From TrEMBL:
PANTHER family: PROTEASE PRSW. Pfam families: PrsW-protease. Keywords: Hydrolase, Membrane, Protease, Transmembrane, Transmembrane helix. One of its GO terms (biological process) is proteolysis. This is Protease PrsW. GO terms for molecular function: peptidase activity. Residues 377-396 are annotated as: Disordered. InterPro entries: PrsW. The chain crosses the membrane at residues 20-42, 48-69, 81-106, 118-143, 155-175, 195-216, 223-240, 246-271.
Length: 396
Protein backbone atom coordinates (compact mmCIF):
# COMPACT_ATOMS: atom_id res chain seq x y z
CA UNK A 1 0.00 0.00 0.00
CA UNK A 2 1.31 3.44 -0.90
CA UNK A 3 2.18 5.65 2.09
CA UNK A 4 -0.49 8.16 3.11
CA UNK A 5 0.28 11.87 2.94
CA UNK A 6 -1.52 13.32 5.99
CA UNK A 7 -1.37 16.88 4.67
CA UNK A 8 -2.96 15.83 1.38
CA UNK A 9 -5.77 13.99 3.22
CA UNK A 10 -6.47 16.93 5.53
CA UNK A 11 -6.43 19.41 2.65
CA UNK A 12 -8.60 17.18 0.46
CA UNK A 13 -6.18 17.09 -2.45
CA UNK A 14 -4.32 14.48 -4.48
CA UNK A 15 -0.91 13.79 -2.89
CA UNK A 16 2.29 14.46 -4.76
CA UNK A 17 4.02 17.41 -6.33
CA UNK A 18 2.35 20.84 -6.47
CA UNK A 19 -0.15 21.10 -9.34
CA UNK A 20 0.90 23.02 -12.42
CA UNK A 21 -2.01 25.43 -11.89
CA UNK A 22 -0.59 26.50 -8.53
CA UNK A 23 2.88 26.97 -10.00
CA UNK A 24 1.52 29.05 -12.88
CA UNK A 25 -0.69 31.06 -10.52
CA UNK A 26 2.11 31.89 -8.10
CA UNK A 27 4.42 32.75 -10.99
CA UNK A 28 1.87 35.09 -12.57
CA UNK A 29 0.96 36.83 -9.32
CA UNK A 30 4.63 37.24 -8.39
CA UNK A 31 5.42 38.77 -11.77
CA UNK A 32 2.54 41.21 -11.33
CA UNK A 33 3.92 42.21 -7.92
CA UNK A 34 7.37 42.72 -9.39
CA UNK A 35 5.98 44.88 -12.21
CA UNK A 36 4.01 47.00 -9.73
CA UNK A 37 7.04 47.41 -7.46
CA UNK A 38 9.28 48.10 -10.44
CA UNK A 39 6.96 50.86 -11.68
CA UNK A 40 7.02 52.38 -8.20
CA UNK A 41 10.80 52.10 -7.93
CA UNK A 42 11.28 54.07 -11.15
CA UNK A 43 10.03 57.19 -9.37
CA UNK A 44 11.20 56.46 -5.86
CA UNK A 45 14.95 56.63 -5.47
CA UNK A 46 16.02 56.17 -1.85
CA UNK A 47 12.45 56.66 -0.70
CA UNK A 48 11.44 53.42 -2.44
CA UNK A 49 13.81 51.30 -0.37
CA UNK A 50 12.73 52.98 2.85
CA UNK A 51 9.12 52.40 1.90
CA UNK A 52 9.72 48.76 0.96
CA UNK A 53 11.39 47.96 4.28
CA UNK A 54 8.66 49.63 6.32
CA UNK A 55 5.89 48.00 4.25
CA UNK A 56 7.32 44.50 4.75
CA UNK A 57 8.27 44.99 8.41
CA UNK A 58 4.85 44.39 10.06
CA UNK A 59 3.74 41.66 7.66
CA UNK A 60 5.08 38.61 9.60
CA UNK A 61 3.30 39.79 12.75
CA UNK A 62 0.07 40.49 10.89
CA UNK A 63 0.14 37.10 9.15
CA UNK A 64 0.72 35.46 12.54
CA UNK A 65 -2.37 37.24 13.87
CA UNK A 66 -4.38 36.03 10.89
CA UNK A 67 -3.22 32.46 11.34
CA UNK A 68 -4.25 32.68 14.98
CA UNK A 69 -7.86 32.72 13.75
CA UNK A 70 -7.23 29.51 11.85
CA UNK A 71 -5.82 27.15 14.46
CA UNK A 72 -8.81 24.85 14.97
CA UNK A 73 -8.98 23.85 11.30
CA UNK A 74 -6.02 25.35 9.39
CA UNK A 75 -6.36 26.21 5.71
CA UNK A 76 -3.91 24.82 3.11
CA UNK A 77 -0.70 26.91 3.18
CA UNK A 78 -0.43 26.87 -0.61
CA UNK A 79 -3.90 28.41 -0.98
CA UNK A 80 -3.12 31.04 1.65
CA UNK A 81 0.13 31.89 -0.16
CA UNK A 82 -1.69 32.22 -3.48
CA UNK A 83 -4.31 34.49 -1.88
CA UNK A 84 -1.60 36.72 -0.41
CA UNK A 85 0.24 36.96 -3.72
CA UNK A 86 -2.99 37.68 -5.60
CA UNK A 87 -3.48 40.71 -3.38
CA UNK A 88 0.16 41.78 -3.68
CA UNK A 89 0.35 41.17 -7.43
CA UNK A 90 -2.74 40.98 -9.60
CA UNK A 91 -4.92 43.22 -7.43
CA UNK A 92 -2.26 45.90 -6.95
CA UNK A 93 -1.18 46.03 -10.59
CA UNK A 94 -4.76 45.97 -11.84
CA UNK A 95 -5.73 48.76 -9.44
CA UNK A 96 -2.69 50.82 -10.46
CA UNK A 97 -3.72 50.67 -14.12
CA UNK A 98 -7.50 50.98 -13.71
CA UNK A 99 -7.39 53.72 -11.07
CA UNK A 100 -5.08 55.78 -13.26
CA UNK A 101 -7.16 55.24 -16.39
CA UNK A 102 -10.39 56.01 -14.53
CA UNK A 103 -9.04 59.21 -13.06
CA UNK A 104 -7.47 60.47 -16.31
CA UNK A 105 -10.31 59.58 -18.66
CA UNK A 106 -13.43 59.56 -16.46
CA UNK A 107 -13.51 61.36 -13.12
CA UNK A 108 -11.21 64.32 -13.85
CA UNK A 109 -12.77 65.15 -17.26
CA UNK A 110 -16.27 64.93 -15.76
CA UNK A 111 -15.80 66.54 -12.33
CA UNK A 112 -12.69 68.65 -12.77
CA UNK A 113 -9.22 68.31 -11.27
CA UNK A 114 -9.96 68.67 -7.55
CA UNK A 115 -13.35 66.97 -7.36
CA UNK A 116 -12.24 64.31 -9.84
CA UNK A 117 -9.49 63.15 -7.49
CA UNK A 118 -11.96 63.01 -4.60
CA UNK A 119 -14.51 61.00 -6.61
CA UNK A 120 -11.78 58.66 -7.76
CA UNK A 121 -10.60 58.08 -4.19
CA UNK A 122 -14.04 57.73 -2.59
CA UNK A 123 -15.89 55.83 -5.34
CA UNK A 124 -13.59 54.64 -8.11
CA UNK A 125 -10.75 53.18 -6.04
CA UNK A 126 -13.00 51.20 -3.63
CA UNK A 127 -15.00 49.70 -6.51
CA UNK A 128 -11.91 48.75 -8.50
CA UNK A 129 -9.73 47.55 -5.64
CA UNK A 130 -12.37 45.53 -3.79
CA UNK A 131 -13.49 43.91 -7.03
CA UNK A 132 -9.92 42.90 -7.85
CA UNK A 133 -9.24 41.63 -4.33
CA UNK A 134 -12.57 39.86 -4.16
CA UNK A 135 -11.99 38.10 -7.48
CA UNK A 136 -9.75 35.49 -5.86
CA UNK A 137 -12.39 34.84 -3.18
CA UNK A 138 -15.02 34.30 -5.84
CA UNK A 139 -12.53 32.01 -7.57
CA UNK A 140 -12.16 29.96 -4.40
CA UNK A 141 -15.94 29.80 -4.11
CA UNK A 142 -16.18 28.48 -7.66
CA UNK A 143 -13.18 26.13 -7.78
CA UNK A 144 -12.41 25.32 -4.11
CA UNK A 145 -15.80 25.60 -2.43
CA UNK A 146 -15.14 22.60 -0.18
CA UNK A 147 -12.11 24.31 1.39
CA UNK A 148 -14.33 27.02 2.88
CA UNK A 149 -16.04 25.59 5.96
CA UNK A 150 -17.26 28.76 7.63
CA UNK A 151 -16.74 32.36 8.70
CA UNK A 152 -13.14 31.90 9.88
CA UNK A 153 -12.09 30.45 6.52
CA UNK A 154 -13.66 33.32 4.58
CA UNK A 155 -11.97 35.83 6.88
CA UNK A 156 -8.53 34.22 6.72
CA UNK A 157 -8.52 34.17 2.90
CA UNK A 158 -9.83 37.75 2.74
CA UNK A 159 -7.24 38.80 5.31
CA UNK A 160 -4.39 37.30 3.32
CA UNK A 161 -5.53 39.06 0.15
CA UNK A 162 -5.86 42.35 2.02
CA UNK A 163 -2.43 42.05 3.65
CA UNK A 164 -0.77 41.38 0.31
CA UNK A 165 -2.49 44.38 -1.26
CA UNK A 166 -1.72 46.69 1.67
CA UNK A 167 1.94 45.69 1.75
CA UNK A 168 2.62 46.74 -1.84
CA UNK A 169 0.32 49.77 -1.72
CA UNK A 170 2.06 51.05 1.42
CA UNK A 171 5.37 51.18 -0.43
CA UNK A 172 3.96 54.03 -2.51
CA UNK A 173 2.56 55.90 0.50
CA UNK A 174 5.82 55.64 2.45
CA UNK A 175 7.88 56.61 -0.58
CA UNK A 176 5.82 59.75 -1.18
CA UNK A 177 5.94 60.68 2.50
CA UNK A 178 9.73 60.44 2.50
CA UNK A 179 10.02 62.53 -0.65
CA UNK A 180 7.63 65.22 0.57
CA UNK A 181 8.59 65.55 4.22
CA UNK A 182 11.67 63.46 4.89
CA UNK A 183 12.09 61.05 7.78
CA UNK A 184 9.66 62.92 10.05
CA UNK A 185 6.69 62.64 7.70
CA UNK A 186 7.67 59.07 6.77
CA UNK A 187 7.53 58.13 10.46
CA UNK A 188 4.11 59.73 10.88
CA UNK A 189 2.65 57.91 7.87
CA UNK A 190 4.17 54.62 9.04
CA UNK A 191 2.55 55.00 12.46
CA UNK A 192 -0.79 55.78 10.80
CA UNK A 193 -0.78 52.98 8.22
CA UNK A 194 1.59 50.39 9.66
CA UNK A 195 0.85 50.61 13.39
CA UNK A 196 -2.55 52.24 13.99
CA UNK A 197 -4.45 50.83 11.00
CA UNK A 198 -2.50 47.92 9.48
CA UNK A 199 -5.67 45.83 9.10
CA UNK A 200 -7.71 48.34 7.08
CA UNK A 201 -7.53 46.46 3.77
CA UNK A 202 -8.14 43.06 5.41
CA UNK A 203 -11.15 44.57 7.18
CA UNK A 204 -12.60 45.93 3.94
CA UNK A 205 -12.19 42.64 2.09
CA UNK A 206 -13.47 40.65 5.06
CA UNK A 207 -16.98 41.71 4.04
CA UNK A 208 -16.51 39.85 0.76
CA UNK A 209 -15.02 36.95 2.71
CA UNK A 210 -18.13 36.74 4.87
CA UNK A 211 -20.38 36.65 1.81
CA UNK A 212 -18.29 33.98 0.12
CA UNK A 213 -18.18 31.89 3.33
CA UNK A 214 -21.97 32.02 3.57
CA UNK A 215 -22.39 30.97 -0.06
CA UNK A 216 -19.96 28.06 0.38
CA UNK A 217 -21.87 26.64 3.35
CA UNK A 218 -25.52 27.31 2.47
CA UNK A 219 -27.85 26.22 -0.30
CA UNK A 220 -29.61 29.56 -0.68
CA UNK A 221 -28.27 33.03 -1.41
CA UNK A 222 -25.21 31.73 -3.22
CA UNK A 223 -25.17 34.68 -5.62
CA UNK A 224 -26.78 37.59 -3.80
CA UNK A 225 -24.97 37.19 -0.46
CA UNK A 226 -21.41 37.31 -1.91
CA UNK A 227 -22.42 40.34 -3.98
CA UNK A 228 -23.79 42.01 -0.86
CA UNK A 229 -20.49 41.23 0.87
CA UNK A 230 -18.59 42.81 -2.01
CA UNK A 231 -20.78 45.89 -1.78
CA UNK A 232 -20.08 46.06 1.97
CA UNK A 233 -16.35 45.93 1.26
CA UNK A 234 -16.67 48.80 -1.21
CA UNK A 235 -18.74 50.80 1.26
CA UNK A 236 -16.25 50.40 4.13
CA UNK A 237 -13.38 51.24 1.79
CA UNK A 238 -15.16 54.31 0.45
CA UNK A 239 -15.95 55.56 3.95
CA UNK A 240 -12.31 55.16 4.91
CA UNK A 241 -11.06 57.07 1.87
CA UNK A 242 -13.71 59.75 2.25
CA UNK A 243 -12.96 60.33 5.94
CA UNK A 244 -9.84 62.29 5.06
CA UNK A 245 -11.98 65.02 3.47
CA UNK A 246 -13.62 65.68 6.87
CA UNK A 247 -10.39 66.18 8.81
CA UNK A 248 -9.59 64.63 12.17
CA UNK A 249 -13.26 64.26 13.08
CA UNK A 250 -13.93 62.13 10.03
CA UNK A 251 -10.87 59.99 10.69
CA UNK A 252 -11.96 59.47 14.30
CA UNK A 253 -15.41 58.29 13.22
CA UNK A 254 -14.07 55.84 10.66
CA UNK A 255 -11.48 54.47 13.11
CA UNK A 256 -14.25 53.79 15.64
CA UNK A 257 -16.35 52.15 12.92
CA UNK A 258 -13.52 49.87 11.79
CA UNK A 259 -12.70 48.97 15.40
CA UNK A 260 -16.34 48.00 15.92
CA UNK A 261 -16.27 45.89 12.74
CA UNK A 262 -13.09 44.17 13.98
CA UNK A 263 -14.75 43.33 17.30
CA UNK A 264 -17.80 41.92 15.51
CA UNK A 265 -15.57 39.70 13.35
CA UNK A 266 -13.71 38.42 16.41
CA UNK A 267 -17.03 37.57 18.07
CA UNK A 268 -18.21 35.76 14.92
CA UNK A 269 -15.05 33.63 14.87
CA UNK A 270 -15.42 32.82 18.58
CA UNK A 271 -19.08 31.84 18.15
CA UNK A 272 -18.23 29.68 15.15
CA UNK A 273 -15.40 27.97 17.05
CA UNK A 274 -17.84 27.17 19.85
CA UNK A 275 -20.22 25.78 17.24
CA UNK A 276 -17.49 23.57 15.80
CA UNK A 277 -16.82 22.17 19.28
CA UNK A 278 -20.51 21.31 19.58
CA UNK A 279 -20.35 19.59 16.19
CA UNK A 280 -17.44 17.47 17.45
CA UNK A 281 -19.46 16.52 20.53
CA UNK A 282 -22.47 15.67 18.37
CA UNK A 283 -20.91 13.68 15.54
CA UNK A 284 -17.70 12.07 16.77
CA UNK A 285 -19.45 9.68 19.22
CA UNK A 286 -21.14 7.94 16.28
CA UNK A 287 -17.70 6.61 15.32
CA UNK A 288 -17.07 4.99 18.69
CA UNK A 289 -17.76 1.58 17.12
CA UNK A 290 -14.68 1.95 14.94
CA UNK A 291 -12.45 2.02 18.01
CA UNK A 292 -11.02 5.33 16.85
CA UNK A 293 -12.67 7.54 19.44
CA UNK A 294 -13.84 7.30 23.03
CA UNK A 295 -15.96 9.77 25.03
CA UNK A 296 -12.73 10.94 26.68
CA UNK A 297 -11.15 11.54 23.27
CA UNK A 298 -14.13 13.73 22.36
CA UNK A 299 -13.55 15.73 25.53
CA UNK A 300 -9.89 16.10 24.57
CA UNK A 301 -10.92 17.54 21.19
CA UNK A 302 -13.19 20.18 22.76
CA UNK A 303 -10.64 22.96 23.37
CA UNK A 304 -7.33 24.25 22.08
CA UNK A 305 -5.83 23.86 25.56
CA UNK A 306 -6.74 20.17 25.86
CA UNK A 307 -5.47 19.55 22.33
CA UNK A 308 -2.13 21.12 23.20
CA UNK A 309 -2.00 19.00 26.34
CA UNK A 310 -2.59 15.87 24.27
CA UNK A 311 0.17 16.78 21.81
CA UNK A 312 2.57 17.41 24.67
CA UNK A 313 1.73 13.99 26.13
CA UNK A 314 2.24 12.40 22.70
CA UNK A 315 5.63 14.08 22.32
CA UNK A 316 6.64 13.00 25.82
CA UNK A 317 5.79 9.32 25.23
CA UNK A 318 6.71 8.98 21.55
CA UNK A 319 8.74 11.95 20.34
CA UNK A 320 8.09 14.26 17.40
CA UNK A 321 6.51 11.54 15.24
CA UNK A 322 3.89 10.78 17.88
CA UNK A 323 3.14 14.48 18.31
CA UNK A 324 2.57 14.80 14.55
CA UNK A 325 0.30 11.73 14.64
CA UNK A 326 -1.74 13.28 17.44
CA UNK A 327 -2.04 16.56 15.52
CA UNK A 328 -3.19 14.64 12.41
CA UNK A 329 -5.78 12.80 14.50
CA UNK A 330 -7.13 16.03 15.97
CA UNK A 331 -7.39 17.79 12.62
CA UNK A 332 -8.98 14.77 10.90
CA UNK A 333 -11.58 14.53 13.67
CA UNK A 334 -12.40 18.23 13.27
CA UNK A 335 -12.70 17.84 9.50
CA UNK A 336 -15.17 14.98 9.98
CA UNK A 337 -17.34 17.18 12.22
CA UNK A 338 -17.29 19.96 9.61
CA UNK A 339 -18.09 17.40 6.93
CA UNK A 340 -21.29 16.53 8.76
CA UNK A 341 -22.07 20.24 9.01
CA UNK A 342 -22.06 20.37 5.20
CA UNK A 343 -24.45 17.41 5.10
CA UNK A 344 -26.71 19.20 7.60
CA UNK A 345 -26.93 22.20 5.30
CA UNK A 346 -27.37 20.15 2.13
CA UNK A 347 -24.18 21.32 0.41
CA UNK A 348 -22.26 18.00 0.38
CA UNK A 349 -22.38 15.64 -2.58
CA UNK A 350 -23.09 12.15 -1.14
CA UNK A 351 -20.27 10.42 -3.05
CA UNK A 352 -17.78 13.12 -2.12
CA UNK A 353 -18.91 12.95 1.51
CA UNK A 354 -18.38 9.19 1.68
CA UNK A 355 -14.95 9.31 0.07
CA UNK A 356 -13.82 12.25 2.19
CA UNK A 357 -15.12 10.73 5.42
CA UNK A 358 -13.43 7.39 4.74
CA UNK A 359 -10.07 9.01 3.97
CA UNK A 360 -10.24 11.01 7.21
CA UNK A 361 -11.16 7.93 9.24
CA UNK A 362 -8.25 6.10 7.64
CA UNK A 363 -5.92 8.92 8.69
CA UNK A 364 -7.26 8.74 12.25
CA UNK A 365 -6.62 4.98 12.24
CA UNK A 366 -3.04 5.49 11.06
CA UNK A 367 -2.48 8.08 13.78
CA UNK A 368 -3.81 5.65 16.39
CA UNK A 369 -1.56 2.85 15.09
CA UNK A 370 1.47 5.05 15.70
CA UNK A 371 0.74 4.59 19.43
CA UNK A 372 -0.47 1.00 19.37
CA UNK A 373 2.67 -0.36 17.66
CA UNK A 374 4.66 0.62 20.75
CA UNK A 375 2.24 1.11 23.65
CA UNK A 376 3.00 4.37 25.49
CA UNK A 377 4.57 3.99 28.94
CA UNK A 378 1.95 6.24 30.52
CA UNK A 379 -1.81 6.43 30.08
CA UNK A 380 -3.30 9.45 28.32
CA UNK A 381 -4.04 12.13 30.91
CA UNK A 382 -7.58 12.63 29.60
CA UNK A 383 -8.68 9.07 30.43
CA UNK A 384 -9.62 5.89 28.49
CA UNK A 385 -8.57 6.44 24.90
CA UNK A 386 -8.13 4.75 21.56
CA UNK A 387 -4.45 5.64 21.76
CA UNK A 388 -3.66 2.69 24.05
CA UNK A 389 -4.47 -1.02 23.60
CA UNK A 390 -8.01 -1.85 24.76
CA UNK A 391 -6.65 -4.22 27.41
CA UNK A 392 -3.45 -2.38 28.19
CA UNK A 393 -1.57 -2.20 31.47
CA UNK A 394 -3.77 0.66 32.70
CA UNK A 395 -7.03 -1.27 32.81
CA UNK A 396 -8.45 0.80 29.95
Amino acid sequence: MAPVDPKAVLEGRIPGRPPIGLIVGLTATSLCALVALGATALYGGAGFWNGLILAVLPIPLLIALMLGLDRLEPEPPRTLAFSFMWGAGVAVLGALVLNTVGMVYVTVPIFGEAEGHVVSAVVGAPVIEETLKGAVLFGLLWFRRNEIDGVADGLIYAGMVGLGFAMVENVTYYMRAFEEGGAHQLGAVFVLRGVVSPLSHPLFTSMTGLGVAYAATHRHGRLIVPLLGLFGAMLLHGLWNGAATFGLGGLAVVYVLDFFVLLVLIVLVAVERHGTVRLIERYLPMYAGTGLVTPQDVQMLRSMASRRYARRWARMVGGAGAARAMADYQLAATEIALLHKRVERGVADPQWFTARRDSLLHLMALARQAFLRTPPPTAPPWGPSGFVPPHGPYGL
